Amino acid sequence: MNQAEDSVTIELTDVNTPIGLVWLAFNQGNLCAAKFEGGREHVLQVVGRRFGSDVSTRRLGSDNVAASALRAYFAGELDALSTVPVDAGGTAFQRRVWHELRTIPPGSTLSYSQIAARIGVPSACRAVARANATNPTAIVIPCHRVIGRGGELRGYGGGIERKAWLLSHEGAHPQTGAELRP
Fold it and tell me: What is the pLDDT of residues 78-99, one digit of tens each?
């Protein structure tokens, strides 16, 4: 292969949401990263870890499928993100976890141990938590819907306040001390 064949072009766009700016990155039309924290630089780090250093970028208009679905989700169409094509990469185990996360309906939550049981590895609670934490496509792969066994909120890459907001937006009400509401 020559260098041109090894190069990956990532398309980037951002979407203003009620809980902050979200940067979206696409590879061949599939969402490969969505991040709140760190902005454009952070999403490029995520993409760089996956695709290597030979990545070029171009700006994508905000009228693409994922950006439109994200705006619809925040406008109250909670199922809008289910149609966004995602290629998050990851290991086989991470992909199993992330696939399972996409089956959790809006307004519902599952614990890490419930996810582990659903993918057939009930002893893998910590590995599920790690896969959840490394999800590169926040909101679209809804890692915010995974909570502690007792119903408490656990960490979220976008911040626990955003997690609480998202769950409240969807009508889920786990135990939380967060005050941020939609």
Answer: 999 999 999 999 999 999 999 9
The reported pTM is 0.88
Catalytic residue among 143, 146, 167, 172: 143
List alpha helices for 52-107, DSSP H.
65-74, 92-101
**Which domain range does residue 144 map to?**
92-170
CATH number at residue 151: 1.10.10.10
Domain C-terminal end among 35, 59, 83: 83
In which band, very low, low, confident or very high, does the pLDDT at 174 lie, cut at 50, 70 and 90? low
Residue 175 placed within a domain: no
Whether 143 sits among the annotated catalytic residues: the reply is yes
- Phi, psi dihedral angles at 74 (to 5 degrees): -70, -20
